[in-house]
Write a structure and sequence with these properties.
The structure is a homotetramer. By secondary structure, the first copy, chain A, is an alpha/beta fold. Chain A is 27% helix and 32% strand. In chain A, the strands form three sheets. In chain A, strands 4-1-5-6-7-8 form a six-stranded mixed β-sheet, with helices on both faces. In chain A, helix 3 (88-98) links the parallel strand 5 (78-82) and strand 6 (103-107). In chain A, helix 2 (61-73) crosses helix 3. Chains A and B meet through helix 1, helix 4, strand 7, strand 8 and strand 10 of A and helix 1, helix 4, strand 7, strand 8 and strand 10 of B.
């Protein structure tokens, strides 16, 4: 299997939150994605591009348009978008509706990477694998599973991603 | 995308080593795979079966035959085999030569899961994703990449998996 | 040196906050002090009593009176009080003013114990040591140092405890 | 309470072992003590001096003489010695027999600091506190407790430090 060139587009979300010990709040500083790739001993040819570092509850339509545009202009055919889980399905729909001829996989985390018990590393490994293999289309990779952009929702009660009827 | 039923066959390796604080040695106790699936918030339909818990340098031909046989008799079509990295390529070749009509992905870790800086969670997420999507065949998922069974080797100098000429 | 019986009075604070992955907020569930004592392989004769689990910014005079009363009625002569850092100096003064004939050491953490980079374990080890050795009085143990109750303040700009002029 | 100047003398031991992912062995690289002081947000005036980085089972009488000599020539009155647990009691006796007019506290860890579940940070906090407060003499700080140099042994069966009859 030959290596596909990949790009990771960072938008923020729980994935990248840090604990600010001066005021006890969760904040964004820099993305942890490069450190996560090092920890995973990744040898993929991957570019990391930080588009924004925001909570996905704060993501506007204009922000989503920026994500779509960044995916469009990326030279790579295979993209991973890190994203807050709360509105990941909305950005997935914006990307899916754009119908770009690329493989785009959104992923995120329920717990910040810097905290001991994060699912972030598992999800990043999963998303990068799906992005290398799946045909063009927009997908959400969470909970070890992969969903099409038009058939996924986050269950707010359980925090689990599931098929949308 | 519908869920494929998966089985994880545990053979040991660095993945599952623990530090024995009484004698300062690395030992096997139980597999950490179930805990890793919990940490990854996995919702995959997955069976975990511990075949053996050994260092892959100690793996004999008879052990490899057991792994092949376990893959053959597993009711699932999609399998992940956790394995020490030192001889992973040998077991991959035994599995590849058996030519089972199943998707089999071997993975492992450079650092034990219980230590802070393990690549195990990244690799497990990656292997489970590849196993869900790739066609029948035997593969090695390490360093974020996926290799066919007949074209992979571990570079002992760098600890990195790479294509075999 | 013979073992002094100790009591740890838990009041909450950053020490004991957990990340709630359903709403992304920091919450109290149970105290992590028992788990921290296990991790520290503590063999001290110590009772853990959870008085309250609150943010120290929410601590009222009535709460402080409860802490003083709990110290008074404790059968042990040597006490550690876990406390949020923001108002630790106020509770120290309430305890100091009460003039109980006991050794009372307040401590806390800048980062929740469950996050990877917490100072909590260091501070707990430090506080328990000071509590075993110092004469009767009220103290604050933070940043590896120990301060008398009437001469300590938290520098809000740096997050560091220092002598009060 | 005014700050006592402290020196930490590093000799190695489990405290400072790292996992070498190329050969799967535990090795010494650099001491983790400076990083542990940062994690503990220590603001103590402390010098860290690495005397040696060895397993305490490999410590010879000549090594012990070097430790005694380093304690003697240190400008500080208050010293912490990090040490492997297996022969900590022997070095404690060598130091105790030397009768230096200083407070010397030996400590170590049952699990390497870089692994997730280490008692090292707890022990370091504890040892630094005892070293600041106790009168001149040689002590062992482990399991949250502090022992005089002539009355301590490690129970090899349980890994716990206890009073020697």
């Amino acid at each position: 299997m030959h290596d596909a060139a990949l790009r990771i587009l960072v938008t923020g979300g729980t994935f990248d939150k840090s604990y600010d010990e001066l005021d006890g709040r969760l904040r964004f500083r820099d993305s942890h994605v490069p450190e996560m790739l090092r920890l995973g001993r990744s040898r993929l040819a991957v570019e990391v591009e930080t588009l924004m570092l925001i909570d996905s509850l704060d993501m506007t339509d204009a922000d989503r348009a920026r994500v779509v545009e960044a995916c469009r202009r990326a030279p790579e055919q295979r993209l991973v978008v890190t994203h807050g889980t709360d509105t990941m399905e909305h950005t997935a729909r914006a990307l899916g509706a754009a119908g770009l001829p690329k493989t785009i996989v959104l992923t995120g985390a329920m717990v910040p990477y810097t905290f001991g018990s994060s699912d972030g590393l598992f999800n990043l490994g999963s998303a990068l694998a799906f992005a290398q293999v799946l045909p063009a289309g927009t997908y959400v990779a969470m909970n070890g599973r992969c969903f099409g952009w038009d058939s996924v929702r986050k269950n707010r009660g359980t925090g689990v991603f599931e098929e949308r009827a």
